[in-house]
Amino acid sequence: LQQHQEAGMKALQAGEFSGALEHYHAACDMAPQEYMNFMRRATVYRAMGRTRQAVKDYTNVLQLKTDFAQARAQRAELLLKQGDFDEAVADYTLLGDDPKYAGPRGTAEAAKVQYQNLLMFVAAGDHPRVIEVANAIVEAAPNFDKVRMLRAAAYEATGQNGEAIGDYTRAAKLTSGETEPYVRLSTLYYKMGERNEALGQVRECVRLDEEEKTCWALYKKLKKLTKILDDMQGNLDGGRYQQALENIEAARKIEKSEPFYVRYLAVKECVSLANGGKAKEAIEACTRSFEADDHNTEILEHRAKAHEVLGDFAKAVDDLQKAVGLDEGNQHLKEALARAQKLLKNSQKRDYYKILGLPRNADDKAINNAYRKLAREWHPDKFAGEEEKEKAAKKFMDIADAKEVLMDAEKRRQFDNGDDPLDAQEQSQRQQQGHYGFNPFGGFGGGGQQFHFRFQ
To answer: Which of 271, 329, 259 has its CA nearest to residue 302?
Structure first.
């Protein structure tokens, strides 16, 4: 026994609390009638922050030695801090009229009244008053887990999520083995869109009680939704926009109402449609999304992209100007705006997509088909009269130029970035060739000459 007592004291003095606790456990088991073993173990518990266990040991001490004032004073202090106000007042009263105990006793009595008021404000749903009164109680009783849970709920109701997380986290530590704080933490993190944090908290909940239905239901939902959303982001990053849209629909079946995810999925739908070439659907989806989240520059950027695909550069410029206004330091948005402005300016001259009647995401096959159809329609030899032939020749040349630019990857890239790669060539050719001397097929030079061609 003496060896355990001496080893325990040595470990305590060295700050080795786990070792000290092990020795004092042995001493208490060997000599349960010696109150000092419990007193020393209570000291270790306090040093480790395990105040509830310390209170139990002080109670053991007082059962063995009822007049041990030091043990009663320390128990009263811990009872006050953990919100057991009646018991704290009782202990301070038994300690007599010593002035050093009058203050703490008054604090405990006042805190008890404040706690009753707090419960009334909770019942009335008066969240600001709940926070105000709880602040006063926590100052006197920082380890009162029930008050921290009530204050956390009031913080959450008033949008003060960081403060709510702090109180829920503290309550989880104070109520070792209780699942409710972890459920609350997981749910709050989930509402904030912090899925990984939410999963971590609900896993702790499941670890504490594998049969707790609320924990399991939340865990399964979070795990499934997180997998789908991770797949969605992977598909977006990999350019697999149709698969991303399928992920979005799957996620919506799991989460239909939580505001963060309703907005989040709407934005991702906008992005997927805009990048996947579904411009009209993208504009509709982006517009719905922006109505619910009118400071989101990502929505404006992708709606602008969809407007560009449809050749509506004025609307693209308008969206990007709004986006830059919302995020003035974003160089990427400024570059996108400059590009859209250049496209708008050039569209007032020649727009090769419009010439062929195609969207800006048209593929080579669509370009070739449109070119052949329009070339047949506007061949100058199909028109009579110089004025009509001249008009057809101009149109015919525009059609050929459109094909030249859009079928050449580098020239198309230049045009998509707002530059016309044929601008200088076109001016030179027009000056040299007169009315309609240009002949992309090599068989037409003007004046009534028959033009014969074959499309491959």
So the answer is: 271
